[in-house]
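Tutorial, part two.
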Amino acid sequence: MKRIVARLYAPLFWGGFIGGGLCLAQWSTLWLLPLFVVALALSFAAEWLLPYETVWNRPVGDRGRDILHALVNEALSALGLLALPGLVALLAIDGVWPSGWPLWWQLALAIFIADAGISLMHYASHRVAWLWRLHAVHHSVERLYGFNGLMKHPLHQLLEASAGLLPLLVLGIPLQVATLLAFAIAIQLLLQHSNVDMRVGFLRWIFAWAPLHRFHHMKYGRAGDVNFGLFFTVWDWLLGTGFYTEVYRIGQGDLGIGSRPDFPRDYLAQLLDPFDSVTLAREPTVPEALRR
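Running the prediction step on this input gives:
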């Protein structure tokens, strides 16, 4: 039974909640908030019932901080949605967005375009020093569970969101589709950082879910510069950064920033860290099975 759940969890969670969001949005996008709360509760329950790494379910003084990150960043997303009609009126090329398409096709287009922009900004954040200083907050985690996807420096969240949303603003994305996109991103982040022992089979070549993304959070320096995609793996195959192996199992002790073992854990200290001077420690040795 556990094997069946492990194989079905990710596709049913992804398709079920995003599909459910599409159905509810026909009446009102306000239904997406309680639906996300249900998704969050199910995600946490699944992590306890079918954990990938049992110890990652135990808080290490980070639960309150992670909740603060989530609340602040989701509030910023909500403010962005409130500002969307004005931004579209200012930037959009009139008549370009395919508003006559079915809603699910419009959402698919928005996901594809946003995924390209966000994934490329993510890639740049590992190549440009000042972007990395902001992005490092997200990589400082030493355990992976659903909430980690929302743990970002708000300035980096703003940059990533801008990279994904700006092309859509120019195209004139409707508010309803943008709200569904924000919901779909939240669902994807829950799956991408999940501590559920999901077995995704061939879908790992399509979707950037936890089995791939765990390798991105390795603490071994450049070894973790893989699997940048938010929704899909196509960008990583094009960039040459796609990576997966069954030879090595990512586990406790493999995550974090190897050169910053003393990275601050407090919320306010993490917000200030990109603007402080730091001393880097020696990178830990990359395990043989992870050398590319």
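Residues 4 and 199 are 9 Å apart (CA to CA). In part three we will examine how such features are distributed along the chain.
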